[in-house]
Amino acid sequence: MTDAAPMAGAAPKPDAAPKTDAAPRPLRADARRNREKILTTAARVFGEQGPDAHLERIAKEAGVGSATLYRNFPTREDLIEAVYRHEVAQLCEAAPALIAERPPEQALRTWTRLFLDYATAKYGMIDALRAIAATGANPYGGSREMIRAAVTTLMDACAAAGAIRTDIRPTDLAAALEGIALTSAGAEHREQAERLLDLTLDGLTARR
């Protein structure tokens, strides 16, 4: 007979077994590009207007529809956390790339400007990031450790080339960068932040 209820105690059919979470399917190339455009645009807009910036503006300037934005990031908090993690990853991945294409001292100086871009984006989202953290989530992940590892990579290359002092530790420079970001983050303070960076890097230069 068909459509009969299974007998009590009968073994479940194979397709009735509990399903496990499958690995997320990789994004198509166009979907990856859209996600990248959203994150890059959102970092800039949040840096300019703060975390309350209109998401529709972000979607429009990224060249995608609002539906695409919300499909990738269902809530504002999802977008803010993703933007922050993306900015950290971009900053840290830039360190070895810069070393590969230019002299170490120049790579370090260029990277510190990228650090200012990251700090400005973070400054525009700081209240929202703190609110996310207050819920028990950890939007920062291992960001501080990642940034210090990037600083170490750059300083090791500079030290090997004899371009910087060897009595300054990567944690010292990282602390100086954090201090500059704390006091001079925000687009309106960019010129002052760059002067402080130059002062710091000049003090790091190897004595002749």
Any chance you could write out the topology, listing elements then pairs?
Elements (H helix, E strand, L loop, with lengths): L28 H21 L5 H8 L3 H7 L3 H26 L2 H31 L8 H18 L9 H15 L5 H15 L4
Helix pairs in contact: 1-2, 1-4, 1-5, 4-5, 4-6, 5-6, 5-8, 6-7, 7-8
Would you kindly provide a written description of the structure presented here, covering whatever features stand out?
The protein is mainly α and about 210 residues long. It has a domain of about 120 residues: Tetracycline Repressor, domain 2 (Orthogonal Bundle). It has eight helices and no strands. The longest helix is centred in the middle third of the chain and has 31 residues. The protein is elongated, with a radius of gyration of 23 Å. The chain starts with about 30 loop residues before the first helix and ends with a helix. The N terminus is likely disordered.
Task: Report the average pLDDT across residues.
Answer: 85
Q: Going by CATH, what is the homologous superfamily of the domain at 81-204?
A: Tetracycline Repressor, domain 2
Looking at CATH, which topology of the domain at 81-204 would you report? Tetracycline Repressor, domain 2
Helix/strand order, N-terminal first = HHHHHHHH
Strand content: under 5%
Strand runs, count: 0
Question: How does CATH name the architecture of the domain at 81-204?
Answer: Orthogonal Bundle
Can you identify the CATH class of the domain at 81-204?
A: Mainly Alpha
Shape, per Cα inertia axes: elongated
Look at the helices and sheets and give the structural class. Answer: mainly alpha
The share of residues in helices is: 55-70%
Assembly state of the chains shown: single chain
In DSSP terms (H or I, runs of 4 or more residues), the helix count works out at 8
